[in-house]
Design goal:
By secondary structure, this protein is an all-beta fold. The protein is about 0% helix and about 55% strand. It has a single domain, classed as monomeric porin ompg (Porin, Beta Barrel). The radius of gyration is 21 Å and the shape is globular. The N terminus is likely disordered. Keywords: Signal. It comes from Acetobacter lovaniensis. This is Transporter.
Length: about 325
């Protein structure tokens, strides 16, 4: 998941209430189904003021290769590995507006290149979420949400002891998203929930860089840098086997323009460089178990199976979702 990790936003349907139901026969109501939320898709605003959602999320990222610029895959040695915790905090300010934040902690290591000098905080995203369209099953209207927020540059990025300590960009990054959610009843009495979404991120300003940084500079460098624009689009499906158990699948496309650095290196030579763009496709199958409308767990793995200028990765992960 932070690189800038891809941040996940699962949530309970029963707690958010932002769903759309289509009845296709004499089946039980789809809102009887309990959900945790998929691994990748963002959830919307809380259903009413005063609800607090907390979700500690744990992942381990294991690279297994590298996608070249032409999309071909190649072995990768040594391999950069990382353990991450991202905890989501979401509070309902009104019945349609929520505030959401994530605390992110990473620990990385690579053979021959050392370990992080302890757990490292990543950049800190804070978003406002507005559910601007409530679902209306009779008129086939889904729930629609708008996200707008900023990454605050709290992660280490400058004057690093080694590259394992890199966990941020040093820049304030604006981001926004739009999400859709609807639920259908299929196969007589099983709920099928669909989410679609699109993210966009853009740096608000450049940042000062010196020596070893998260932008790939070395000792003696002085200058500035800025991360490139990036985004994600995807959809998820959640199929209810029974009241508590749910099968889940996400499919998402990530893209990022290259970061831009300019300044002078240790010899005084002028540097002005834009890194190559990158992109990937990921699929994330998972299983949810919910023991109440407000509490549940999810286990699964993100698999990055195609792309360019990025790693071939497998990322097993789990989360515990709690609504108060």
């Amino acid at each position: 998941m932070l690189s800038i990790k891809k941040i996940k936003y699962p949530n309970f349907l029963a707690a958010t209430g932002i769903m759309m139901t289509f009845y296709t026969g004499t089946a039980r109501a789809a809102d009887d189904q309990w959900y945790t939320g998929s691994l990748v898709s963002p959830s919307g605003a809380q259903s009413r003021a005063g609800l607090l959602g907390v979700e500690p999320y744990y992942s381990y990222t294991q690279p297994v290769g590298y996608f070249a610029s032409d999309g071909s895959s190649h072995p990768q040695h040594p391999r950069q590995q990382m353990f991450s915790n991202s905890t989501m905090w979401k509070y309902g300010i009104t019945d349609h507006i929520s505030i959401q934040a994530h605390t992110v902690v990473n620990y990385g290591w690579e053979r021959g290149h050392g370990h992080s000098s302890g757990p490292k905080f990543g950049d800190f995203p804070v978003d406002m979420i507005w559910r601007f369209l409530d679902p209306n099953p009779k008129k086939y209207i889904p729930a629609l949400n708008l996200f707008a927020g900023v990454y605050f540059p709290t992660g280490d990025y400058n004057k690093l002891q080694n590259k394992q300590d890199s966990n941020g960009t040093g820049a304030y990054v604006f981001r926004m998203a739009i999400t859709e959610q609807s639920t259908y009843v299929v196969n007589g009495n099983h709920a099928l929930r669909l989410r679609t979404w699109g993210w966009f991120r853009h740096a608000l300003a450049s940042t000062h860089l010196q020596d070893v940084t998260s932008y790939g500079t070395g000792n003696g460098f002085h200058g500035r840098g800025s991360p490139g624009m990036s985004g994600q689009a995807g959809f998820s499906l959640e199929y209810g086997l029974n009241h508590s158990w749910v099968l889940v699948m996400d499919l998402a496309r990530d893209w990022a323009n290259g970061s831009h650095i300019w300044g002078t290196d240790t010899t005084g030579k002028h540097v002005d460089r834009i890194a190559s763009s990158s992109g990937d496709w990921q699929i994330a199958p998972a299983v949810e178990y919910n023991w109440s409308p407000r509490f549940g767990v999810i286990f699964g793995s993100a698999i990055y199976y195609a792309g360019h200028n990025t790693g071939v990765k497998i990322s097993p992960q789990f989360a515990v979702n709690m609504i108060y």
